[in-house]
Model the fold of this input.
Amino acid sequence: MELKELEYIVTIAEEGGISKAAQKLYLAQSSLSQFLARYEAELDTKLFVRTGSGVRPTVEGEIFIRNARQMLQQYRRVKEELREAELPNGGQLIFGISSFRGAALIPPVLQRFRTEYPTVNVIISEHDSIVLQKKVAAGELDMALVAFPANECPRKDSTVLQDEVCLVANRAHPVMEFAHYGQLSRPWIDLRDTANFEYLLSKRSNVLGAVAQQQFKEYGINPPVINENLTAAFAQSMAVHGLGLAFTYGSCAVPSADVEYFSLGKERYFVDLALMFPPDGYRSRSNRALEEMIREFFNNEEI
Done:
């Protein structure tokens, strides 16, 4: 049993299919299929069953994958500890963040971190916050900046920033008739006044999509939705061009004379951005240094 074989099995499970896994592993699909068939024959156990959309683990496969992840995680930890012993300020960090927010928030932090720790290689892993939580818990990430809906962060001391959820609209949109100015840092709107306008939404399985549904329920509205499986970035871009209303984050707001970003009511709504770490407890010097730098950079602000 070799580590690369464990990597192959775990990747097939994560990608949900041999074709996608082969692309990620830079292997020919036929080679990966042959490997899996040979490996299952050696184990005398089926690890996956085929579905209409790819493959899924069997019960035995779930057991194997869980243990494979633990072995890979432990191997990576040992490598990191040895590297740190040899080069205290060097090594590698796998840092998770959402693509949409990460592009707006993290590059300035990493620029400063690289200046102070030039021998540390920070690898960015981009996923929705819900996926990031699972990957941190599985030990696949060294740390992650994860969004939690209001009051749902499991540890308040892990919060480094509050990110406001906003409504974005083109200034030519008729929703501008209901805008309220002058009382908050940005204009606000009562979502009940938007009940008849078309919305562009993210999928419900990510935090922004879930917050949208929560807000609709809270305000007692059921507006028409013309797309509900968009990425947050795509939904915002379509709203910017006047194709509907969308939710976005204050951290991702791009000032423009043609666009308005509204607070959701006078009370406003924020998600907590919190740093999460694997449950095994080991953290390298560079890991702790990056956490400290992120905390200093944002200093529990609201954006």
Summary: The two ends are 49 Å apart (CA to CA).
